[in-house]
From TrEMBL:
Residues 176-198 form the Ice-binding protein C-terminal domain. It comes from the Bacteria. This is PEP-CTERM sorting domain-containing protein. Pfam families: PEP-CTERM. InterPro entries: Ice-binding_C. Transmembrane segments: none annotated. Keywords: Signal.
Length: 215
């Protein structure tokens, strides 16, 4: 009974992880930009823009890495602070926030988009951009354009909505963040290895564990 007592709670834990993963299965992306070729202070600007008729959506940013400095500016309705979590909405023309950064190293953040844009029929898309500007907003750092861009396409002509990802100026790298449901599969694999090892140890000992006293 000992194996059953230990295995059942482990299965329940794995199922809990799976349920949590299913609830959190919103696509998430990790963005990086390498500024090793540049020095000095600059402005990293984040904007989430859309036409007035676009499906409401929110861009949620977190897991910031790099030499972020104080905040430069933000629009009304932006919530949170770097290096914690920041949320921007696309309604009312959109929103933005801008942060001072010290160039010379790697910057990164995670972003995901909340809202029913993928399942709501619409003709208006939304656009989220991350861009590096000089300290006076007089020009771009590196090549012209944003280092990361996300276009949120709504449901249209029966085709589900989707997120189109790009790096317009070629400086940024965008990768998918594994969904938590992947942790469930990994957890099951680990549990399987543990149980196989226990079974082999029992077989190698030449006898089965006592039954009845561990109930």
């Amino acid at each position: 009974m000992r194996n059953v007592k230990t295995f059942v709670p482990q299965c329940l834990l794995a199922c809990t992880l799976f349920a949590h993963g299913a609830a959190q299965a919103v696509p998430s992306y990790h963005v990086t930009v390498n500024t090793a070729a540049y020095t000095g202070q600059a402005l990293m600007d984040f904007t989430f823009l859309a036409n007035a008729g676009a499906t409401p959506a929110t861009a949620v940013l977190n897991n910031f890495i790099g030499a972020f400095g104080p905040e430069f500016d933000r629009s009304t309705g932006v919530i949170g602070l770097v290096p914690g979590q920041v949320s921007l909405g696309n309604q009312g023309g959109g929103s933005y926030f801008t942060q001072w950064v010290s160039l010379g190293g790697l910057f990164g953040f995670d972003v995901h988009f909340d809202g029913a844009y993928a399942s709501t029929k619409n003709i208006d898309a939304s656009q989220f951009n991350a861009t590096l500007y000089s300290g006076d907003f007089g020009g771009y750092i590196g090549a012209d354009g944003s280092f990361a861009a996300f276009e949120l396409l709504p449901l249209s002509n029966g085709s589900p909505g989707q997120v189109l990802v790009s790096s317009p100026n070629g400086m940024g790298t965008v990768s998918d963040v594994p969904e938590p449901s992947g942790l469930f599969l990994g957890g099951l694999a680990i549990l399987g290895v543990v149980q196989r090892r226990k079974h082999r140890r029992v077989q190698a000992s030449g006898h089965a564990p006592a039954i009845g006293h561990d109930m």
